[in-house]
Amino acid sequence: MLIDSHAHVQVRQFNSDRPEVIAAAFAEGIGRMIVPGIEVESSREAVALAAAYPGRIFAGVGTHPHDADTLTPDALAAQRELAGSPGVVAIGEIGLDYYRNLSPQDTQRGALISQFALARELDLPVILHNRDSHADMIAHLRQHGAGLRGVFHCFIGDKSMARDALDLGFYLSFAGPVAFPRNTELAEVAAWAPLDRILVETDSPYLAPPPFRGKRNEPRHVALVAARIAEARGLTLDALADATTRNATALFRLPPLDPQEDTSFHAPV
Ligand SMILES: [Zn+2]
Ligand SMILES: [Zn+2]
After folding, report:
1. Which of 37, 48, 107, 221 is deepest in the core (most CB within 10 A)?
2. Range of 88's domain?
């Protein structure tokens, strides 16, 4: 079984065929997925999906740095309430994005700090988005993140950035870019990182791996990400799937799988 640790299947890109996309992933051995929110409404939709697929889909509740200016005190209170719902396993996605700067950087930092506090209060891991903001992210984790655990989602960086995250006890989650042919350096980082600290994800509907680049991404394509990392590490796909599933289960404290469910992994075609 594989776990897609980051798939926004609640968003409008899946409005026409969401049940089919989810069923296709399950049928191909993607037994579980984590669906992170982007702001309050998409967090609410993630919680609804977790309720519709108990034990298979889990939700993150959070406000993305792009939407940081929507995180009013009322929105934060709504997130706190939502985060108590069944199936919520993380605060996320949250973070910093100094590449697009869709919310002012000050606002992004404020939203990050208040959501760190929420994660600590609720004893939930954080799902971090971090783009062109590495030094600030590490500084904020050191200054405001004591006691937090979590994952750097869609990790894109070199070994020294990876080491910063690992030294803070965080996991690294790799997405489609690790499978892009020109990204041999990222594949090297994925091969070098400790096997008990890596996760795999799609970040659907974005960042589809080859041969689907430029198309809508789907959770079933996480097998392509896993296959690329397995190749880089000299492991079988099954071994990589087992390790990353164990890691995601530990980080998000997922309940044991219902033994009745068929989640056997079938290699992608
Ligand atoms: Zn992100
Ligand atoms: Zn995301």
Report:
1. 37
2. 2-251
